[in-house]
């Protein structure tokens, strides 16, 4: 009964491979998936007929998949996953005793070719976990900019004032003695309001940057505004493309640095 259910699942898997692999082939892609679909379909038919050759054929398909994967992407383990994950899981299932035993009338629980292939490939995958296909070694030749040691003064050119992110200003015009006398110098309204199809997380968290005599900040819809810091008059603003597909989850622009 287990083998019949397995055969049906394999047939569905094979049809999907043949169909989608055929689409890929017609688009100029690899013929591998369509051919593998045919192979899996043959293996499913043999398993439904209670033939041991079903497992032998599938083991052969696994080796073909392995060599093709190595030929196409080398030993980059992350690129192995989309090429061999389903084949590997199905091969592991077919190698289990409750699939093998009915094919040998209960006399054997291990298929030498398929079982040995699965063991070797599992060991290979474990070994690949300790292999870096893209090692990055060497030295950075460009000098690093020294971090600012004090607080920001007239210019606020980074998110936290300086590259150290201290969020502290060294200016002395405002003190604890005169802060009570401060009044609103100007206000500015961006006009960027929440819309009906905006994301749930919609927040205005921009920290304005002051550089070269201008005040810059951004809005939740990624508009960038430049103001005169003394009067609040808008100098210019830019609105991005109206394609709103990037606004599906978070709408928060914290700054332009």
UniProtKB/TrEMBL annotation:
<keyword id="KW-1133">Transmembrane helix</keyword>
<keyword id="KW-0472">Membrane</keyword>
<dbReference type="InterPro" id="IPR018391">
    <property type="entry name" value="PQQ_b-propeller_rpt"/>
</dbReference>
<feature type="transmembrane region" description="Helical">
    <location>
        <begin position="112"/>
        <end position="134"/>
    </location>
</feature>
<feature type="transmembrane region" description="Helical">
    <location>
        <begin position="55"/>
        <end position="74"/>
    </location>
</feature>
<dbReference type="Pfam" id="PF01011">
    <property type="entry name" value="PQQ"/>
</dbReference>
<feature type="domain" description="Pyrrolo-quinoline quinone repeat">
    <location>
        <begin position="156"/>
        <end position="257"/>
    </location>
</feature>
<protein>
    <submittedName>
        <fullName>Membrane-bound PQQ-dependent dehydrogenase, glucose/quinate/shikimate family</fullName>
    </submittedName>
</protein>
<feature type="transmembrane region" description="Helical">
    <location>
        <begin position="7"/>
        <end position="25"/>
    </location>
</feature>
<dbReference type="GO" id="GO:0016491">
    <property type="term" value="F:oxidoreductase activity"/>
</dbReference>
<feature type="transmembrane region" description="Helical">
    <location>
        <begin position="80"/>
        <end position="100"/>
    </location>
</feature>
<dbReference type="InterPro" id="IPR002372">
    <property type="entry name" value="PQQ_rpt_dom"/>
</dbReference>
<keyword id="KW-0560">Oxidoreductase</keyword>
<dbReference type="InterPro" id="IPR011047">
    <property type="entry name" value="Quinoprotein_ADH-like_sf"/>
</dbReference>
<keyword id="KW-0812">Transmembrane</keyword>
<comment type="similarity">
    <text>Belongs to the bacterial PQQ dehydrogenase family.</text>
</comment>
<feature type="transmembrane region" description="Helical">
    <location>
        <begin position="31"/>
        <end position="48"/>
    </location>
</feature>
């Amino acid at each position: 009964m287990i083998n019949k259910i397995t055969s049906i699942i394999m047939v569905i898997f094979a049809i999907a491979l043949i169909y989608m692999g055929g689409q890929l082939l017609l688009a100029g892609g690899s013929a591998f998936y369509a051919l593998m679909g045919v192979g899996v379909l043959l293996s499913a038919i043999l398993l439904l007929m209670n033939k041991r050759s079903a497992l032998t054929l599938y083991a052969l398909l696994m080796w073909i998949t392995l060599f093709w994967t190595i030929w196409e992407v080398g030993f980059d383990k992350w690129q192995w996953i989309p090429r061999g994950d389903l084949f590997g899981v199905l091969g592991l299932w077919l190698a289990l005793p409750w699939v093998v035993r009915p094919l040998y009338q209960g006399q054997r629980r291990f298929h030498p070719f398929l079982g040995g292939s699965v063991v070797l490939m599992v060991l290979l995958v474990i070994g690949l976990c300790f292999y870096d296909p893209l090692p990055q070694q060497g030295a950075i030749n460009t000098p690093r900019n020294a971090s600012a040691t004090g607080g920001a003064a007239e210019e606020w050119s980074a998110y936290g004032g300086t590259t150290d992110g201290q969020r502290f200003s060294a200016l002395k015009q405002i003190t604890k003695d005169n802060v009570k006398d401060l009044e609103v110098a100007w206000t500015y309204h961006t006009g960027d309001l929440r819309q009906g199809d905006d994301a749930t997380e919609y927040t205005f968290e921009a920290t304005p940057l002051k550089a070269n005599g201008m005040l810059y900040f951004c809005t939740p819809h990624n508009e960038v505004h430049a103001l005169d810091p003394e009067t609040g008059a808008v100098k210019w603003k830019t609105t991005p493309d109206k394609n709103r597909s990037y606004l599906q989850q978070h709408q928060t622009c914290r700054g332009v640095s």
